Amino acid sequence: MSRVAYVNGQYHPHGQAMVHVEDRGFQFADGVYEVWSIFDGRMADFDGHMTRLHRSLNELRIDIPMSREALTRVLHETIRRNRVTNGIVYLQVTRGTARRDHPFPAEGTPPSVIVTSRSISASKAEAQAQKGVAVLTQPDIRWGRCDIKTVGLLANVLAKQAAREAGAYEAWMVDEMGLVTEGSSTNAWIVDEHGKLRTRDTQANILKGITRTALMALIEQEKLELDERPFSVDEAKRAREAFFTAAGAFVMPAVSIDGTTIGDGKPGPIATRLRTLYLEQAKRDAI
Predict the structure, then answer these.
(1) Is 196 annotated in the active site?
(2) Rounded to two decimals, what is the model's pTM?
(3) What is the DSSP string of 29-41?
(4) Which of 1, 37, 84, 208 is spaced 20 to 30 Å from 118 by Cα?
């Protein structure tokens, strides 16, 4: 079946979907995005992603392109037209099309809205989670507003590519103090050597992950001890467990970091339990 994309009010065959050559997303990475996981044709953590989308747009002073209700209809229709049962739906909003110039274009320039959707093998993802994956650390060279979910992802792309070339699934960014900030497209977690869950607080210029937020509520529900505090690469390598969270990865156990085995080299009980709880909740609450 051919894929379908939504671009600025119209649905097109995926291979024919286009934006203007002077779209500011293309010229300046002047835009934001969100990704929802899809379970049984329904979007998980819907409100959290929509709230973060509005925050990102407001932080960059990009006009909200349409009402929440209209955008929800577009997302659902894109999922339907692509016949996606389990997968993702991707939304990108840019500042729109205007003559190439660094300042914002004239007031009233309409934002560009692009939506795509594709299927992902649930069985493949589950097999990876049961085995665990490898992580590679990389210097964090990103810009100073990583709290905004912008499309300016070149540093993330380079880190992810380095991980893939090393046979790892994900890259964890490391700041100038040797502390892990977050993954190239995920939030980083450990169960430290004392058995305490740790993840970096979102005041430290990292993205406030929606899966991260949902998981924190589950952690509280399970009465697990959580410390929102940074950890070093060395602490991560000594940890009992390591894992990362994201809309596409859910809760993914990491069993090695830079070639160092974490724990006994298998997904740990806490990460495994949290993945099960998260998936149960996400599937139940998806819309």
Answers:
(1) no
(2) 0.96
(3) --EEEEEEEEETT
(4) 208
Ordered DSSP codes for 255-273: EEETTEEPTTSS--HHHHH
**What CA–CA distance (Å, rounded) separates 283 from 235?**
33
Query: 240's torsion region: left (phi>0), alpha (psi -120 to 50) or beta?
Result: alpha
Q: Per-residue DSSP letters for 204-236?
A: SS----HHHHHHHHHHHHTT--EEE---BHHHH
Rounded alpha-carbon distances, angstroms, from residue 226 to 103, 130, 132, 146: 43, 24, 22, 23
- Residue range 261-282, pLDDT digits in tens: 999 999 999 999 999 999 999 9
At 93, is the secondary structure helix, strand, or coil? Answer: strand
Tokens standing for 259?
């070639």
* DSSP string computed for 183-200: ESSSEEEEE-TTS-EEE-
- Residue 3 sits at φ, ψ, to 5 deg, of -85, 160
Q: At what angle do helices 210-221 and 46-60 cross, to 10 degrees?
A: 130
In the set 149, 196, 208, 283, the catalytic residue is: 149
The answer to whether 96 touches 64, Cβ cutoff 8 Å, is no
The candidate with the shortest Cα–Cα distance to 65, out of 88, 44, 34, 41, is 34
DSSP 106: -
**Phi and psi at residue 55, in whole multiples of 5°?**
-65, -45
Write out the two tokens for 282: 């996400």
Distance CA 95, CA 59 (A): 12
Hey, which residues does 189 pair with through a beta bridge?
A: 199, 243
Q: How far apart are CA 64 and CA 71, in angstroms?
A: 10
Task: For residue range 71-92, list pLDDT tens digits in order.
Answer: 999 999 999 999 999 999 999 9
List of residues 6+ apart from 90 with CB closer than 8 A: 33, 34, 35, 115, 116, 117
Instruction: Check if the beta carbon of residue 239 is closer than 8 Å to that of residue 192.
Output: yes
